[in-house]
Specification:
This protein is α/β, with parallel strands linked by helices and about 750 residues long. About 55% of the residues lie in helices and about 10% in strands. The strands form 3 sheets. Strands 3, 4, 5, 8, 9, 10, 11, 12, 13 and 14 form a 10-stranded mixed beta sheet that branches. The longest helix is centred in the first third of the chain and has 41 residues. The chain is elongated.
Length: about 750
């Protein structure tokens, strides 16, 4: 038994495993990321696990998509083997005396890859069966597809290395035929070795089923052993370069659906390149790796400052070439914009629209409906779309006619904008059935795959490619990929410019929409609208009783008046409103100094702050012309801030909690604050304000849909069914009572 344990401990697979944890531990980080992603602990909110466990290709999860991911995982395994082989070869000199040393290394280095594959298949079955609702028979084909892709790329790789081995052997023959050049005791100069290997290997797998005792190669000169390994190193590095060229090619042809490989494949291939580059850096630069990397970053920063490279994302449709007339982003400019005369002019324009809205109502004093929809990625977009379809049904098709303004953030605004566009087309006589389930299915369409694929293949790897929007050129990046996929999912209906909605909004044929984003420089709100809204830049104030307050919001169209603001693409306005941190790039705007904006949810995730300021601005008109104001809030989480409590489950949380507390509870604090604001506003004589909430409140955290741009089949069904929850059914009854609508008996139900 003792002999067996010694043999096991000093076997090549076990010693290699120890070596990975002793040297170049950074290479294990890639495995840690993959394991954590599959487990659902790394980037869970971004839906990264679904990209791997249910990969989509050409809109479907099938054997082909799984095979492509299998190929990418095979490339990663080979890249990891190559990098570690290059770095560790000096510690296992005995392989130099074997045929196909790299193949034997891969066999003995298979412990971590095999553990990953077993773990992957277990999690994939669990995810596909219970979340994607895929039958067991289909899962079998998915596994088969993955294994086919994996085996294919491993076979191709080993064929390449077999050929490389034969080529190396031919080049080494002149040296081998002269023993005095590589055998120490035949050499005229005795070679002295300093130090020794980090591992002691007595046994290794010559093949997957055959163990063999290691051969003593101490009689070979160090130069001879190094020459053998270096030739293999060169062949290995060539294979990593081929993977790099493959990703560049994908970036150039990403417009074609055929080349839009699953995001998991793109990410894994990128990891393959990174691990290969990291190995090459460490091998060739040795202790100079870190200084070289720092120097490279500093050089790129110099190029950026000189405008030789520009990775910043732009607002498509906006004029960036008019550099002489860029607006000054200063306190004086914003104060001038929000002057009394400008505010009064914009209020007069808005009152005219309010009057147009009132003429279309059924009473002299109608209820003014303001729709607020929360951020929350696909789950909010799907829930918003489902709720609006339901409300259209129970109000006999009048909910959009009664609504005057829609505001909110991120996914909720995507769902509401699509529904409004469908309503507009219906008003124009198009054959649109607003309650058709296919439109909800459109919104549930995946956006993560093209986004991540573009990030890896375009943003990081491929040279810049350009496209035209209106009269201006822009660089294709993941922001562009997001817009193009959203456009495709919504049947091309949203491929419009802001100005194309102006006339219908002014005539009150459709509700107005305020698309907000947040200026990262100072957290001011950027408000995009087809109408001038400088009255939204400041709240009510009386300077005779309190200090004057600077504007905390900016009217986009007025501020960028000379940059063609109404040429902005609607898809871009939605993206600016939904700039999910990290996943989508911040959008930089042509001001002086330059500013950039990101997700509206950072400032007003529920849309209520915007609605309160609007009501405040038109308080007198509302009192004189309406019977009440209804804030109709559609939100992707339960009210009361009881969901997702910040728990301290382990000792590390006690160290990180002070730093992450604000981030974790940001939306909860926002809800408390906005509820206070509404209470203060409503508690005023003559203000008849009602609030009705529809909320998606899944069961426990594990069952609730993730906050990202991808939904599983089960999540989509859960969201659509939640419209008829007891809470939302009660909200529907309250809505009908307030609006004095009598629906058909079967239109309100609990499912």
């Amino acid at each position: 038994m003792k002999t067996w344990l010694r043999g096991f401990y000093y076997s090549f697979p076990v010693q290699l495993l120890f070596l990975h944890f002793r040297k170049y531990q950074v290479l294990l980080l890639f495995w840690f990321i993959l394991f954590s992603t599959i487990n659902g602990t790394f980037m869970k909110t971004f839906g990264a696990d679904s990209l791997y466990l249910a990969p989509e290709y050409l809109g479907n999860v099938n054997a082909i998509s799984s095979a492509i991911v299998g190929i990418s995982v095979g490339m990663f395994i080979m890249s990891w083997n190559i990098a570690t082989f290059v770095l560790f070869s000096k510690h296992f000199r005995f392989l130099a005396a074997t045929t196909n040393p790299f193949l034997k290394y891969c066999i003995n280095n298979a412990v971590i890859p095999l553990l990953f594959l077993v773990f992957y298949f277990f999690k994939a079955y669990e995810f596909d069966h219970f979340k994607e609702l895929i039958p067991a028979a289909e899962i079998f084909f998915l596994v088969g597809g993955f294994l086919s892709g994996l085996i294919f790329i491993l076979a191709v790789s080993f064929i390449y290395f077999f050929r490389a081995d034969r080529s190396i052997l031919r080049r080494m023959m002149p040296l081998i035929s002269n023993p005095s050049s590589y055998i120490t005791h035949l050499s005229p100069i005795k070679e002295v070795h300093h130090g020794g290997p980090l591992i002691n290997v007595e046994w290794y797998f010559e093949s997957p089923t055959r163990l063999r005792h290691t051969r003593d190669v101490s009689h070979y000169t160090q130069a001879y052993v190094d020459s053998i390994f270096k030739r293999h190193h060169f062949a290995a590095i060539i294979s990593v370069f081929i993977a790099f060229l493959f990703l560049i090619g994908i970036g150039f042809f990403l417009e074609q659906p055929f080349f839009q490989i699953p995001a998991a494949a793109s990410i894994t291939i990128f990891f393959s390149i990174l691990i290969g580059v990291a190995g090459a850096f460490s091998y060739f630069l040795q202790s100079w790796s870190i200084p070289y990397l720092v120097g490279l970053i500093l050089l790129l920063n110099v190029f950026y400052k000189l405008d030789w490279i520009d990775p910043r994302n732009k607002a498509f449709g906006l004029n960036y070439t008019n550099k002489k007339e860029r607006p000054a982003y200063t306190r004086e400019t914003l104060l001038e914009m929000s002057s009394a005369a400008n505010v009064e002019a914009d209020k007069k324009n808005m009152i005219a629209i309010l009057e147009n809205w009132k003429k279309k109502q059924d009473s002299d004093k109608p209820v003014l409906v303001l729709i607020n929809t929360s951020g929350g990625g696909h789950r909010s977009a799907t829930f918003t779309m489902s709720v609006l379809q339901h409300l259209d049904s129970i109000t006999n098709g009048t909910i959009m006619k009664r609504a005057f303004l829609v505001s909110g953030a991120s996914g909720g605004m995507i769902g509401a904008t699509y529904f409004r566009e469908l309503y507009l087309q219906q008003q124009q006589g198009k054959n649109i059935k607003l309650r058709d389930k296919k439109y909800v299915d459109d919104i549930t369409g995946d956006l993560l795959n093209p986004l991540f694929s573009s990030f890896v293949a375009r943003d990081l790897i491929a040279p810049a490619q350009k496209f035209k929007a209106g009269n201006h050129e822009y660089v294709k990046d993941r922001g562009y990929a997001f817009e193009e996929k959203l456009n495709q999912n919504t049947r091309g209906f949203l491929n419009k410019q802001l100005k194309e909605y102006a006339a219908d909004e002014k005539a009150a044929n459709i509700p107005l929409m305020f698309f907000n984003s947040v200026v990262t420089r100072d957290s001011r709100k950027m408000i995009i609208s087809t109408q001038p809204v400088r009255f939204m830049m400041q709240g009510w104030q009386d300077t005779t009783r309190m200090p004057g307050m600077d504007p905390d919001a900016i009217d986009f169209a007025s501020f960028f008046a000379k940059q063609d603001p109404y040429e902005l693409r609607m898809l871009t306005a939605l993206r600016m409103n939904a700039t999910f941190p990290v996943v989508l790039p911040n959008v930089w705007l042509p001001s002086d100094p330059v500013i950039d904006v990101m997700d509206a949810g950072l400032r007003d995730n529920y849309g209520q702050e915007t609605s309160i300021r609007f009501m405040e601005a038109f308080d007198e008109w509302i009192k004189a012309n309406t019977s009440a104001v209804l804030i109709l809030q559609i939100r992707d989480r339960g009210a009361g801030a009881w969901e997702y409590p910040y728990l301290s489950d382990d000792i590390s949380d006690h160290a990180t909690k002070p730093f992450l507390l604000l981030q974790h509870n940001w939306f909860k604090m926002m809800e408390f604050f906005q509820n206070d604001m509404l209470s203060y506003y409503a508690d005023h004589e003559g203000r008849n304000v009602h609030k009705i909430t529809f909320q998606y409140a899944g069961g426990n955290e594990e069952k609730k849909a993730a906050l990202n741009f991808h939904l599983t089949k089960r999540e989509a069904k859960d969201i659509m069914a939640s419209v008829f929850s007891p809470y939302n059914t009660e909200s529907s009854q309250k809505l009908l009572t307030l609006l004095n609508v009598k629906p058909a008996a079967d239109r309100i139900r609990v499912e």
